[in-house]
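Q&A log
Question type: sequence-to-structure
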Amino acid sequence: MHSYLEFEKPVADIEGKIQELRALAADGEAVNVEDEIDRLKTKSSQTLQELYAKLTPWQKTLVARHPDRPHAVDYIAGLVEDFTPLAGDRKFSEDHAMIAGIGRFRGQSVAVLAQEKGHNTETRLKHNFGMVRPEGYRKAVRIMEMAERFGLPLISFVDTSGAYPGRGAEERGQSEAIARSTDTGLGLGTPSVSIIIGEGGSGGAIA
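Response status: OK
Response body:
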């Protein structure tokens, strides 16, 4: 079921009318509603475009946090062929908030880094709501160094409200891990492209 933001209510109302017409048609209570449904679909699309053409800064923030936005796993599945995930920082553990691996984009071998938030309670807990811990940043450094070594372009998908601020992360060197990740990224000689697919908050996103 689609989730609508408060300012998207006009679109939600139109979509509700479309669903009502489809229900009537399914029950045999409407002879031909396809023309009306097509008209409402066009109106819904136009209304959405008009709303998004004049978003306030706060509304843009809400859109970036929209629960129905595609996530990193969706982009990887749709864009990267033969994706092979690589896990662990070889120092402490695996961080599921940071997805890393290699694959092919339009026939070109690439390295991939992505922050994943999860789409339901179970996966959000698994991926720590996209808040990366030190081991995630160290895994990113490992992948960037591998990309440099083998001449692989790096594609990064950014979607985080920030680095994980918990006590354990601080004890394991969160600040140092972020700084080292940022430094490694700035020193890359191989092509690097970062795409913000949702939130791009704080130094945690930069790293």
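Response note: Residues 6-63 form one domain.
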